[in-house]
Amino acid sequence: MKPYSQLSKEELTALKEELEKQFEDVKGKGLKLDMSRGKPSKAQLDLSNGMMDILNSQVDLVSSDGVDCRNYGILDGISDARKLLADMSEVPERNILIYGNSSLNVMFDTVARAMTHGFLGSTPWCKLDKVKFLCPVPGYDRHFGITEFFGIEMINVPLLPTGPDMDMVEKLVAEDPAIKGIWCVPKYANPTGISYSDETVRRFAHLKPAAEDFRIFWDNAYSIHHLYDDKRDVILELLNECVKAGNPDMVLKFISTSKVSFPGSGIAALAASEANLEDAKKYMRVQTIGHDKLNQLRHVRFFKDMQGMYAHMRKHADILRPKFEKVWEVLDRELAGLEIGTWTKPVGGYFISFDSMEGCAKAIVAKAKEAGLVLTGAGATYPYGKDPKDSNIRIAPSFPTVEELEVAVEIFVLSVKLVSIDKLLEA
Ligand code: PMP
């Protein structure tokens, strides 16, 4: 198909009329579709229903290390859960600390702790004039929400196919002691789906930040979330690389079983050096007498080990894969060659990232909404909700059915075409 930019004004106007008719037709159907959040579908949630049968009044609620999970205690988590989450995080058990039901909560708490108490005896961030974070973009809106909430200044760093622009990261952290952290989703990143290269991970491990309390916030939310059996991204394990580089305390790794079992009712954990975990426990000890051990027990008995988890993730992939492929099929068929947008084709994770022509994303999201399709707000993938090019849109294919997605993506491409034509006619 011919790029839209090569069409004459007359051709564009005629095309617009035809597309508007199609748009009015779908709008008339009064649809309600949602591709806004990376939520697992009902079919995916059903995969873990067996977990609800595991704990009942007839079974022994004592863990294999002899802990009565109904009672108080065991701040770090029961040992079977520590083993499972350590394996999932690819770290030794001494480097894992089990938290509650959400990794976002752990990240929030960690930033809050740095603000009020500092890390390993450093000055609490709230006592400093300025605290800054590097934010690879596009990125996860809820990360940016945490740093914005605490008044931390966010600096955009381009996310390349290999990970964040490391030339820029190295230079900025070395120069500016106010830079205290960086948000990273190293595998199947939200929203682009890219995974960091080995070189990027090694360069992270060898960073020489001006701030002694600089931390890499390594959110491995999609560590085992592959879409295919034969195409998988593998990333280097950062804690071990940091240890080898003599920087064991520089990384904080976050993980959870949210998109493995039940979002909001999973297990979250922090993987870090023993010093960092001791530091975190000083805070945790005051915060709680212990997290939900019955939930830990339920997870351990359901999955047993990583083999069990991998087998379970294959079932998720069987449900998710046709959805991603449906989105790609429609995008390829309808938009390839028009030069009005590009999109990612990750082999895992929960998102497809779409880049429209500059200055079109907000209008596309608004247009799709007119026809009943809710997308993640344009700009959400950037700090402060400000996409400087107004071009990035996050597509979340997991929640709707394949049939709903077919219609949803049709609405999306019609919206992209109409808004792009308007932009070209304006020029
Ligand atoms: N990190 C990333 C990158 C995510 O995409 C999500 C879920 N959308 C989360 C964290 C949330 O994780 P949790 O449910 O463990 O809080």
Automatic annotation (TrEMBL):
Q: Which GO terms describe its molecular function?
A: L-aspartate:2-oxoglutarate aminotransferase activity
Q: Which CDD domains match?
A: AAT_like
Q: Identify the keywords attached in UniProt to this record, alphabetized.
A: Aminotransferase, Transferase
Q: Which domain of life is it from?
A: Bacteria
Q: Does the keyword Transferase apply?
A: yes
Check the record and name the InterPro entries matching this protein: AspAT_Ic, PyrdxlP-dep_Trfase, PyrdxlP-dep_Trfase_major, PyrdxlP-dep_Trfase_small
> Which Pfam families does the entry link to?
Asp_aminotransf
Quote the PANTHER family the UniProt record gives. Answer: AMINOTRANSFERASE, PUTATIVE-RELATED, ASPARTATE AMINOTRANSFERASE
What protein name applies here?
Aminotransferase
Q: Which organism is it from?
A: Blautia faecicola
